[in-house]
Amino acid sequence: MTSTTLTQLEHHDEFIGRHIGPSTDEQKAMLEVLGADSLEALTKDTVPGTILREPFLQVGEPQSEREALATLKAIAKKNQIFTSYIGMGYYDTVTPNVILRNVLENPGWYTAYTPYQPEIAQGRLEALLNFQQMTMDLTGLDLASASLLDEATAAAEAMAMAKRVSKNKKSNAFYIADNVYPQTIDVVKTRAEYFGFEIIVGPAREASDHDVFGALLQYPDKTGELHNIEQLIGELQEKKAIVAVASDLMSLLMLKSPGEMGADMVFGNAQRFGVPMGYGGPHAAFFATRDKFKRSLPGRIIGVSKDSRGRPALRMAMQTREQHIRREKANSNICTAQVLLANMASFYAVYHGPQGLRRIANRIHRLTDIVALGLKDKG
User: Residue ranges per domain, the chain?
Assistant: First the structure.
């Protein structure tokens, strides 16, 4: 009978056993070639002393995967979970279980890549076509893309597009209303720096007082206030400025659409349509514009076509605008999209239908009224 010890009975589910990097023997051979005795010695020889931390960071004894998971869960349980009222474009939502199980947690949806082969991607293309149609219906515009990265980067894309299509070629300035989400303003400023654009931030009502190639407005604004921006849009367009409006899909179920008010572009975050907050992302942005600007629209566009037998089929349309065709001359060099999250938003709309979506929007509005009255009552 072979003697055993308790340590032999332990099952260590170690990370290193599945590590795809160099083995211990390979590391030793590499260190010998480099003339170093250990990884620590190699680090000290290569990292400047001004930034080298000594002693090295103490992270505790190694743990198996299950032990590490148990430790992290114990830490997480110390958190106190409260309802978030931060807002700023991020709102909790209910993800229907049928979408959670069959889309978000389904590798057929979450591992899929760009549908360059439409013949094997008709289902995904149809879902994205629904996303585009939903965006067009709610924004009141002619054409929409199949999602962008997030609201802030969509705003930066709107600024770049405004410069391309604006007839005010002499201006190099872009106006941002100061009631736009702060994260959006920061991202647009960063992109503008490398485009060489001048950014002017100020009250929305003063936008038409400046000579700009475009302007960005928020509807509703960052505090939830609603302003009639129709007249302002007209004043800006009279001065040959392109007007982009950041908006909210859920609120557009109850409000007059920016497209009806004359906006040239409308974009925003589709997160409220069944996509979990995920600690701030990822979320899909929507982006819509007028037909006359379609060649300058950033992002993928799904179009209706015909196959070799003349049957209706879907494919990516107008791909000559995109990076995989035009390289550095593309409308946008963000060569990906949040398709999984866009599809979730699309299915959320299909799942609830137009009447169901309006009921949700009205309920949110009523609950907000109740909170507001309660806060006023408490002073």
Answer: 13-76, 115-357
Judged by DSSP in three states, 267 sits in strand
* Cα(15)–Cα(211) distance, integer angstroms: 59
The first and second tokens of residue 180, run together, are: 């736009």
Is residue 131 within 8 A of residue 286, CB to CB? The reply is yes
HSE on the CB side for 30, CA within 13 Å? 10
**pLDDT < 70 stretches in the chain:** 1-17, 334-337
Q: Going by C-beta distance under 8 Å and a sequence separation of 6 or more, which residues neighbour residue 330?
A: 321, 322, 323
Q: Given strand 242-248, what is the order of strands in its sheet?
A: 143-144, 285-289, 265-269, 242-248, 214-219, 173-177, 198-202
The arrangement of secondary structure in 115-357, i.e. its CATH architecture, is 3-Layer(aba) Sandwich (3.40)
**Full-model pTM:** 0.84
Six-digit token string for 329: 């001359």
pLDDT in tens, 6-58: 666 665 666 666 777 888 899 999 999 999 999 989 998 999 989 988 887 88
At 6, the amino acid letter reads: L
